[in-house]
Amino acid sequence: MNFIKKLIGTLATDEVALLPSGKLFLTRLPRLPKGELECLYNDAYASIRQTTSPYYYQLCITRVFQEGEADADGSLDGESDDDADFEDHDTPRSINDSSASKDEWTFPIVQELAIQYQERSNGVRAITWVDLNGDEGDQFEFRVDEDVHLSEVDLFVDAVYRSIYELRFQQSSRGIAREELEEFVYETPVESLAAFR
Predict the structure, then answer these.
(1) 120 part of a folded domain
(2) HSE, side-chain direction, 13 A CA sphere, residue 50
(3) 129 domain residue, yes or no
(4) Strands, E, within the chain: which ranges?
(5) Can you give the residue range of the structural domain that contains 143?
(6) What is the rounded CA–CA span in Å between residue 66 and residue 63?
(7) Is 73 inside any structural domain?
(8) Beta carbons within 10 angstroms of residue 65's beta carbon
(9) pTM for this structure?
(10) What is the rounded average pLDDT of the residues 156-169?
(11) How many domains does the chain have?
(12) CA max distance for the chain
């Protein structure tokens, strides 16, 4: 990716942090008829992107295709000639404004998402956040693959809190101590969802 950036110059959006592999799930309350757990992407990566709007970041979950695998358009390896579906996701919108293409979900990083990192007793490491457009109790969950180093997860989680800080205070988070970001940390999982994980 760095090689491509050097060839074409600085992109309109830059990745601030990256979790290179994991799975994306939508979790629901057990009492709902839709099912408790739905796997949206079996192989994906998570990134935080800085947009062209100052102090505005997005959480992006991108599907990874295996060699020879067709995407939702039927083209191989995620290549598509159709740019008609292109949407500009670089401008701030309402907090309920997440979007999903066939191969990527994007979410504005705002405090209302209640983004949190969880290490569960069964060894699962997950980044979770509220589905602002879904039913009550719906959450997205990015389960980090076990081969991803803990230091990468820590950097990613720190970048989430810094993104929220910058949006709220409209200033850079450079030089801000970790203690100043504590107000954005959600440590208590939603109990109604934790029971079935």
Answers:
(1) yes
(2) 13
(3) yes
(4) 14-27, 37-50, 57-63, 99-100, 104-108, 116-119, 125-130, 139-144
(5) 8-67+86-194
(6) 10
(7) no
(8) 16
(9) 0.75
(10) 95
(11) 1
(12) 52
